[in-house]
């Protein structure tokens, strides 16, 4: 089994975590909102971590050093970019970031 970390518990993050939890038991969701994280954790029966996903200590708490995949899908491009850079530096094999602003990918 592989550990997958989803950063962002909004609509996109919820659906990704839902789909991934059907295929692997090891899904961890990080969200800065305690209520949202608790709701997602209860609905999907997955581990959640409350905190800023761009924080190394929060990523460590989620188990990033054991993760095979990190998906950064918050509504904040900069957070998603920081998460993806940290994941790459820590050797995560598969990394994806949701980017909305064309300024970052032109």
Can you put this structure into words, describing what you see?
With 106 residues, the protein is of the alpha/beta class. The protein has one domain: NAD(P)-binding Rossmann-like Domain (Rossmann fold, 3-Layer(aba) Sandwich). The protein is built from four helices and five strands. It has helices at 11-23, 34-44, 56-62, 77-89, and strands at 3-7, 27-31, 47-50, 67-72, 94-97. It has a five-stranded parallel β-sheet, sandwiched between helices. Helix 4 links the parallel strand 4 (67-72) and strand 5. The longest helix has 13 residues, at 11-23. It is globular, with a radius of gyration of 12 Å. The protein starts with a strand and ends in a 9-residue tail after the last strand.
Quick description:
The chain contains 4 helices and 5 strands; from the N terminus they run E-H-E-H-E-H-E-H-E. The chain is of the alpha/beta class.
Instruction: Work out the oligomeric state of the chains in this entry.
Output: single chain
Gross morphology is globular
Low-pLDDT stretches are: none
Distance between the termini: 36 Å
Strand elements, count? 5
Look up the CATH topology: Rossmann fold
- Please count the helical segments: 4
Class from helix and strand fractions:
alpha/beta
As laid out across the biggest beta sheet, the strand order is 3-2-1-4-5
The value of Rg in angstroms is: 12 Å
The biggest sheet, with number of strands, parallel, antiparallel or mixed sense and barrel status, is: 5 strands, parallel
Write down the domain tally: 1
Estimated share of beta-strand residues: 15-25%
- Please, what is the CATH homologous superfamily? NAD(P)-binding Rossmann-like Domain
Which architecture does the CATH hierarchy give at level 2? 3-Layer(aba) Sandwich
**Could you spell the SSE succession in H and E letters?**
EHEHEHEHE
Estimate percent helicity.
40-55%
Average of pLDDT: 94
Name of the level-1 CATH class: Alpha Beta
């Amino acid at each position: 089994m592989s550990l997958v970390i989803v950063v962002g518990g909004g609509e996109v993050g919820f659906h990704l975590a839902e789909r991934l939890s059907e295929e692997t038991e090891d899904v961890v969701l990080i969200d800065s909102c305690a209520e949202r994280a608790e709701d997602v954790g209860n609905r999907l029966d997955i581990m959640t971590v409350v905190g800023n996903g761009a924080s190394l200590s929060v990523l460590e708490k989620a188990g990033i050093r054991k993760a095979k995949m990190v998906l950064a899908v918050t509504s904040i491009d900069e957070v998603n970019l920081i998460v993806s850079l940290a994941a790459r530096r820590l050797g995560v094999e598969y990394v994806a970031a949701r980017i909305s602003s064309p300024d970052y990918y032109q």
